[in-house]
Amino acid sequence: MEEVKVIVVGAGPSGLAISACLSQNSISHLILEKEECNASLWRKNTYDRVNLHLANEFCYLPLMPHPPTAPTFLSKHDFLKYIDTYVARFNITPRYCRLVESAVHDHVEDKWRVETKNTRDGSLEVYVAKFLVIATGENSEGYIPDLPGLSSFEGEILHSKHYKSGSKYESKEVLVVGCGNSGMEIAYDLYNWGANTSIVIRNPVHVLSKELIYQGMRMLQRLPVNVVDTIITFLANMKYGDLSKYGISRPKKGPFFLKNVTGRSPVLDVGTIRRIKDGAIKVFPSHIARIENKKVVFGNNMEKEFDAIVMATGYKSVANTWLKDYKYVLNDDGRPKNKFPSHWKGDKGLYCAGLSQRGLFGVKADAEAIANDIHKTLN
Ligand SMILES: Cc1cc2nc3c(=O)[nH]c(=O)nc-3n(C[C@H](O)[C@H](O)[C@H](O)COP(=O)(O)OP(=O)(O)OC[C@H]3O[C@@H](n4cnc5c(N)ncnc54)[C@H](O)[C@@H]3O)c2cc1C
Ligand SMILES: NC(=O)C1=CN([C@@H]2O[C@H](COP(=O)(O)OP(=O)(O)OC[C@H]3O[C@@H](n4cnc5c(N)ncnc54)[C@H](OP(=O)(O)O)[C@@H]3O)[C@@H](O)[C@H]2O)C=CC1
Ligand SMILES: O=C(O)C(=O)Cc1c[nH]c2ccccc12
Predict the structure, then answer these.
(1) Among all ligands shown, which has an atom nearest to the Cα of 160?
(2) CA proximity to 134, closest of 350, 313, 342
(3) Do 186 and 263 sit in the same domain of this protein?
(4) Which residue is closest in CA terms to ligand 3's atom 8?
(5) Which residue's alpha carbon is at the smallest distance from atom 27 of ligand 2?
(6) Is the confidence at residue 343, as pLDDT, over 90?
(7) 166 alpha carbon – ligand 2 mean position (Å)
(8) Which atom of ligand 1 is nearest the CA belonging to 99?
(9) Which CATH number do you get for residue 208?
(10) 22: Cβ below 6 Å to ligand 1?
C-alpha cells in the first residue's frame, strides 16, 4: 500500500495538467494510467487524419502556452510533441498499466482507497490519498446504440474510436452512423480512400468552417453568445447556402448556445459538405429503423446494403462504474453532478477534471481550479 496526498486517475491532458499544477505547489501526488502511455486517446484512439479543430490559444495546458512560432492549428503530431515537451518540462511520471478498478471513501480515515490491476502481469495494488481526482475523460468508452437487428449485420461494425483510415475500404459500401465531428470527418476520409460512402443524419446539426469557429471563439471573449451566434450563423448560411435539400438542417438555437447548454460541438467542415453537395457522399436523412443481414432500412423506408458500418455515435463516461462513491461528484450518467462552472468540485476531497464538454480549454480551467483548491485546503 502506498500513500500520497493526491491520486489522479488518468494520464490524458487533464491528468498531466493537474500533475503540473500540483508540482508547482510541491504537493505529492501520483497519476494512475491504464495504458502504457500518456494521452492515450490521442496516441491510440483517434483516426489518422485528426487535427486540432481549435486554434492553439484554446488548446494549451496550464503553465505552458504555445510559442508564437507554433502553427495556429496544431496537427495531431504537433499536439503530441507538445504533450511530450510538457511531460518532460514538469517531470511527470505516471504509473502506467494501472487500471483503476475501484475507489472507495474510507469514512473512518477520511481518505480514498484506490485499487488497481496491472494490465501487464495482473498484479493488484492499493493506493491511499486524501484527495482523488477523476481525469478519465469523456471519451473513455464508445457508445453504440442498440439498433434493431444490429447483431444480424453480416458486415463489419466498428466504433469511430477504432477507425484509423479508409485504406481498406476502397470500393466498399460503408455507412457512417452519426454526424458529429467524428462522423463527418470519417465520411470524408472514407470518400478520399475510394469507399462508396453514406452517412446517417437524423437530427439538425450546425455546420461551420474552421475560420467561422475561430472567429466565433474570439468574439465570445467580448460579445454575448446570442450576438455571436447570430453573426456566425448568418456567415455560415452565406458560405454554405441552404443545406436542407441535402438532408442537413440547422438547429433553431445557435451553435455556441448549444455548445454551452448541451455540450454538443458544431461540426467543423473539413471538406465533407462539398462532397455531400456533389453527391459523392450520400446522406440518409432519417433514423435507422432496422438492420437485416447486410441491409439497413431507414425510417423513411429507404434501404441499402452495406459492407461495413462505422458507429460515430459518440461516447460515454464510465467513471461511475469503478468509482464506488461517485455520488460525491458525479451523476448516475458519469457526468458532473454540479453545474458549470462549479462542476469540478465534489465532496470528501473528490474532484473531476475534463468532464465539462469544453475540450482542452475546459481541461486547463479545471486543472487550475482543482490544484488551487487542494493547495488552499492544505494551507
Ligand atoms: C476524435 C476526438 C478529437 C478531439 N479533438 C479535440 C480538439 O481538437 N480540441 C479539443 O479541445 N478537444 C478535442 N477533443 C476532446 C478531448 O476530450 C480532449 O482533447 C482531451 O483528450 C481530454 O483530455 P482528458 O485527459 O480529460 O481525457 P482523455 O484524453 O480521454 O484521457 C483520459 C485518460 O484516462 C485513462 N483512463 C480511463 N479510465 C481509466 C481507468 N479506469 N484507470 C486508469 N486510467 C484510465 C485513459 O486511458 C486516458 O489516457 C477530441 C476528442 C475526440 C474523441
Ligand atoms: N478534431 C477535433 O477537434 C474533433 C473533435 N471531436 C470531438 O469529440 C467529441 C465526440 O465527437 P463524436 O465522436 O462526433 O460524438 P458526438 O457525441 O459529438 O456525436 C454523436 C453523433 O451520433 C449521432 N447518433 C447517436 N446515436 C445515433 C443513432 N442511434 N442513430 C443515428 N445517429 C446517432 C448523434 O446524432 P443526434 O444528434 O441525432 O443524437 C450525433 O450526430 C465531440 O466533442 C467532438 O467535437 C471529434 C472528432 C474530431
Ligand atoms: O472536442 C470538443 O468538442 C471541443 O469542445 C473542442 C472542439 C472541437 N471542435 C469544436 C468545434 C466548435 C467548438 C468546440 C470544438
Answers:
(1) 2
(2) 350
(3) yes
(4) 53
(5) 313
(6) yes
(7) 19
(8) 42
(9) 3.50.50.60
(10) no
Whole-number pLDDT of residue 27: 97
* pTM listed for this prediction: 0.97
Same domain as 160, residue 20: no
Q: How many domains does one find in the chain?
A: 2
**pLDDT tens-digit map of 79-92:** 999 999 999 999 99
In angstroms, what is the span from residue 18 Cα to ligand 2's centroid? 27
Ligand 3 mutation pick, 206, 210, 213, max ligand atoms within 8 A of CB:
213
Tell me, in angstroms, the distance from the centre of ligand 1 to residue 355's CA: 10
Residues 366 and 238 in one domain: no
Could you tell me if 145 and 18 are in contact, meaning their C-beta atoms sit under 8 angstroms apart? Answer: no
**What domain range is 362 assigned to?**
2-140+317-378
281 plus 300 within the same structural domain: yes
3 state SS for 277-321: HCCCEEEECCCEEEEECCEEEECCCCEEECCEEEECCCEECCHHH
Per-residue CA distances from 108 to 116, 127, 326 (Å): 22, 16, 18
| Co-location of 197 and 213 in the same domain | yes
Q: Is 13 in the pocket of ligand 3 (CB under 6 A)?
A: no
Cell of 292: 437485416
Q: What is the pLDDT of residues 215-272, one digit of tens each?
A: 999 999 999 999 999 999 999 999 999 999 999 999 999 999 999 999 999 999 999 9
- pLDDT for residue 337: 97
Element (H, E) at 23: helix 13-24
Q: Please tell me the number of the ligand nearest to residue 215's CA.
A: 3
pLDDT for res 140: 87
Strand partners, 290: 297
